[in-house]
Design goal:
Order of helices and strands: HEEEHEEH
Shape: globular
Helix content: 10-25%
Largest sheet: 5 strands, mixed, barrel
Oligomer: single chain
CATH class: Mainly Beta
Number of helices: 3
CATH superfamily: Nucleic acid-binding proteins
Amino acid sequence: MPGNPLNRFDSDWEEKIRVHFADHIPKPIPDRNTIVTGYVVANAPFGIFVDIGYGVPAVLGDVYIGHDQQQKMDPHWTKPLGTKICAKIGDDTGQYPKLHQWDYEEWGPQHLAAEV
């Protein structure tokens, strides 16, 4: 059974990231707007962390709810651990590369069908 069956963020999300990437060797992140696939390794209060195969965690933030709404509702952006994600590379100048949510109809299906 995948982790996070109740669609909640992981209270130990930082530890999950540390453990998952402990043996990974960082590689250069692709250029901005490159389509990448990966899988969920942790659910944080502000988004999900994804292993996109470059040795560092990437974060897909919840861009659809504001801070006030976030306090009033369950974190609907969380995904079960291991869920395959397709996104575009965004800003890579921070602590973690940021991912952009994507338009499923435009370019999602062919990338989600590919192996991660």
